[in-house]
């Protein structure tokens, strides 16, 4: 039997120790990088939603019932950034829940309720915009601050009722060795929570935005035909119909313009002094088609961003919830579960961007806020 020299054994032990230290240092470095990345996302989410809330509060032009829904959505996403994300970062880095069951229950309550409420806000905004486009004149009279407040309260109440049963069930089944999570032992709880929090709102949002796009497309065609039908009066080209037809998208409130920028200032047909002989009927028809096509493309792009961001952020998480909680042999790693959870949290960062970036009033308000912050 061969005997290994002591010097060789020492060298082997030293190399093994160095390898272990290298693994530990790599693990520490990766955790630091991960915590910094997640913390940065939380800070950006907090900043963006705070700016939306502040802009609506300080800008008189944004004081509109539909914008109150945007403000409530931003407030909900702000709660996610402040009360949910930091605890999740600690949980991920520590790889265990170290803050006790009381804090765990509070964190899960806020997490589920606020995320559900954020999703339901998107459905409420879709419903509000659908009514504003398909029944503009009548709904304009009904669209009051009181109605917006009722919708916001209803969204919060529904969110609480959706999130409460799973939380109560977890309270009875809580076990310290399972960490801070909710595991549904019954399919009924999984169906109730996932369908109430995501799948039903998703179906509603898809249907409403499809109808919104169809209605907007129809309005673009009618508005284009109205604007390009002209009569000659004292040598001046004037529209036959008012430039602000009651049923045209121009009469929609600022949130509708933010949704699809239905009223594009550069596309408006202005009064000119050109004679009727200038330009052929074919040119006018081509211009109408170009204007209508551009607006339809813009509306489709905006709808694609809204729906795409929502589906990409939340669908993987809720698919995982259904699969894991209904299949006894199925499961996911902690890394995958954390990634899907934070993909859902990312929607709270994207919401203030998508729902305000297409609105010129919001853009101006943000610029003013940034200038004020620069001079402070």
Fold and architecture overview:
It is a single chain. This protein has 11 helices and 2 strands. A hairpin with a 2-residue loop joins strand 1 (230-233) and strand 2 (236-239). It has one domain (37-375): Rhopdopsin 7-helix transmembrane proteins. The protein has a two-stranded antiparallel ribbon with strand order 1-2. Mean pLDDT is 77; it is low at 230-275. By secondary structure, it is an all-alpha fold. One of its GO terms (molecular function) is Gi/o-coupled serotonin receptor activity.
List the total number of helices: 11
CATH architecture, by name, is: Up-down Bundle
Outline, from the CA principal axes?
globular
Give the strand line-up of the largest sheet: 1-2
Mean pLDDT: 77
Biggest sheet, in brief? Answer: 2 strands, antiparallel
CATH topology: Rhopdopsin 7-helix transmembrane proteins
Low-confidence stretches: 230-275
